[in-house]
C-alpha cells in the first residue's frame, strides 16, 4: 500500500527521512547512510512518532550493515552501532522492537534484513488503515453518526508512522465518511508537534481544525466543545497503562471529569507485554534548553533548573478504549492487552 505523506522510505541506497524539525516551513529530506547521522536524526526528532521509529530502527539495521561492509567493521563494532540505534530514545517501544525484529536476520545477509524491515513498514501502513476503520466505527456507533468534534494531542498522523497515521488515521477515516465537524489540535509544548505537524497534516487534508494551547484543553473539554479525545501511544503496558506525549494525562483527566470518551489508537507493535504497568515504562528526559529558552533567547532567570519529561503515563482506568488494528479493546470494561493476547 502506498502511503500519501512518506516520512520514511528506503531509496535503494539510503534511508530517506522527511526532516520533521523543519516543518511546516520547509519540506526537505535527509538521506541517511551512516549510523551517527541516524542516531542524531532520532534524538533531534527528524524522525519521530513510535511507529515511524520502529521502521527507522528496522531500516537502521540495514544502514549499519551497509556501513559495516563499506568500512570493514568487525562483529563487535557492528553490534555496538546497532545497539546505539536501538537506544537512541527510550520510551517508544517500537524503536527497540523494530531493531530486534530484524537484527537476528543479519546472519542471513543484508537483503534478508532489508526485506523484513520493509515488511515492518508495509504492515504499519496497512495496520493504520485498519485502526482508522475500527476507530471510526467505534466512535460513530457510540456517539451517533453525526459530525464529531475531536481533540488530539501531539502528532499521531502519517508523519508519526510509515503512513496514514493512528489517531489521525481515525480522524481521516471519519472525514471520508463526512463525520468530522472540527479537530482541536493541542499545540504540544515544547516542540510543537501539534501546531507544526498535526496542523500541517489537517491543512493538507482539508479537515477543519483549531490549534489551541495545551493548557486550554481542559477548559475546552469541560465547556462541552469536544465529543471525544483520541491520541496515539509510545508504549502501552500489559495492563493498558499508556505512555504518550507529555500533556496526554491532563487530557485524559479532563475527559473523565466531563464523561466523554478518551481513546488511544495504536498498533500492537506499540504494546509491550513485557512491561507490566505504567510505572515500569522508561520516560525520556529531554534537554533543559527545550523549555528554558525560546530559540537562542533564554526565558528564565540564570540558574533555573528544568524538569522536561517528554512523555507521561495515562492509567488504563482513564482510557475508554484502545483502538488496535485487530479491533477495539474496551479498557473501561476491564479488558487489557495482556488478557487479549
Ligand atoms: C502514532 S505516534 C504516537 C506517539 O508516538 C506520539 O503521540 C508521540 O508522543 C510522539 O512523540 P515524539 O516525541 O514526537 O516522538
Question: Can you put this structure into words, describing what you see?
Answer:
This protein has 341 residues and is of the alpha/beta class. It folds into two domains: 8-123, translation initiation factor eif-2b, domain 1 (Four Helix Bundle (Hemerythrin (Met), subunit A)); 131-340, Rossmann fold (3-Layer(aba) Sandwich), CATH 3.40.50.10470. It has helices at residues 35-43, 50-71, 75-86, 93-103, 110-143, 167-176, 193-205, 217-222, 248-258, 289-292, 337-340, and strands at 8-10, 15-18, 29-32, 148-152, 180-186, 209-212, 228-231, 235-237, 242-245, 262-265, 271-272, 293-294, 297-298, 311-314, 321-324, 327-329. The protein has a seven-stranded mixed beta sheet with strand order 6-5-4-7-10-15-16. The chain has a four-stranded mixed beta sheet with strand order 11-8-9-14, with helices on one face. A three-stranded antiparallel beta sheet has the order 1-2-3, with helices on one face. The mean pLDDT is 97. The chain binds 5-S-methyl-1-O-phosphono-5-thio-D-ribulose. 5-S-methyl-1-O-phosphono-5-thio-D-ribulose binds at residues 45, 48-51, 92, 154, 156, 160-161, 166, 193, 231-234, 244-245, 310. 5-S-methyl-1-O-phosphono-5-thio-D-ribulose (MRU) binds at residues 45, 48-51, 92, 154, 156, 160-161, 166, 193, 231-234, 244-245, 310. One of its GO terms (biological process) is L-methionine salvage from methylthioadenosine.
Amino acid at each position: 500500500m502506498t502511503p500519501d505523506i512518506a516520512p520514511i522510505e528506503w531509496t535503494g541506497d539510503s534511508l530517506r527521512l522527511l526532516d520533521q524539525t523543519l516543518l511546516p516551513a520547509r519540506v526537505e529530506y535527509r538521506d541517511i547512510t551512516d549510523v551517527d547521522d541516524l542516531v542524531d536524526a532520532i534524538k533531534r526528532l527528524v524522525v519521530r512518532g513510535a511507529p515511524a521509529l520502529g521502521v527507522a530502527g528496522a531500516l537502521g539495521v540495514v544502514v549499519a550493515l551497509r556501513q559495516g561492509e563499506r568500512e570493514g567493521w568487525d562483529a563487535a563494532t557492528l553490534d555496538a552501532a546497532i545497539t546505539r540505534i536501538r537506544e537512541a530514545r527510550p520510551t517508544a517501544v517500537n524503536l527497540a522492537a523494530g531493531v530486534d525484529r530484524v537484527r537476528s536476520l543479519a546472519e542471513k545477509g543484508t537483503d534478508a534484513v532489508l526485506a523484513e524491515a520493509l515488511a515492518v513498514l508495509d504492515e504499519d501502513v496497512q495496520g493504520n488503515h485498519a485502526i482508522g476503520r475500527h476507530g471510526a466505527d467505534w466512535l460513530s456507533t457510540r456517539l451517533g453518526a453525526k459530525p464529531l468534534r475531536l481533540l488530539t494531542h501531539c502528532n499521531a498522523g502519517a508523519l508519526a508512522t510509515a503512513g496514514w497515521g493512528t489517531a489521525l488515521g481515525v480522524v481521516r477515516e471519519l472525514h471520508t465518511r463526512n463525520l468530522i465537524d472540527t479537530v482541536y489540535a493541542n499545540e504540544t509544548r515544547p516542540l510543537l508537534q501539534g501546531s507544526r505537524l498535526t496542523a500541517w497534516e489537517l491543512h493538507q487534508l482539508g479537515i477543519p481544525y483549531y490549534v489551541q494551547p495545551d493548557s486550554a484543553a481542559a477548559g475546552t473539554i469541560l465547556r462541552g466543545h469536544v465529543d471525544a479525545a483520541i491520541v496515539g501511544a509510545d508504549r502501552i503496558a500489559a495492563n493498558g497503562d499508556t505512555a504518550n506525549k507529555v500533556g496526554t494525562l491532563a487530557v485524559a483527566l479532563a475527559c473523565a471529569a466531563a464523561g466523554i470518551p478518551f481513546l488511544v489508537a495504536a498498533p500492537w507493535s506499540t504494546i509491550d507485554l513485557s512491561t507490566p504497568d505504567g510505572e515500569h515504562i522508561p520516560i525520556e528526559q529531554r534537554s533543559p534548553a527545550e523549555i528554558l529558552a525560546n530559540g537562542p533567547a533564554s526565558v528564565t532567570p540564570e540558574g533555573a533548573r528544568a524538569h522536561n519529561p517528554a512523555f507521561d503515563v495515562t492509567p488504563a482506568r482513564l482510557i475508554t478504549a484502545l483502538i488496535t488494528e485487530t479491533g477495539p479493546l474496551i479498557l473501561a470494561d476491564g479488558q487489557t492487552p495482556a488478557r487479549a493476547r
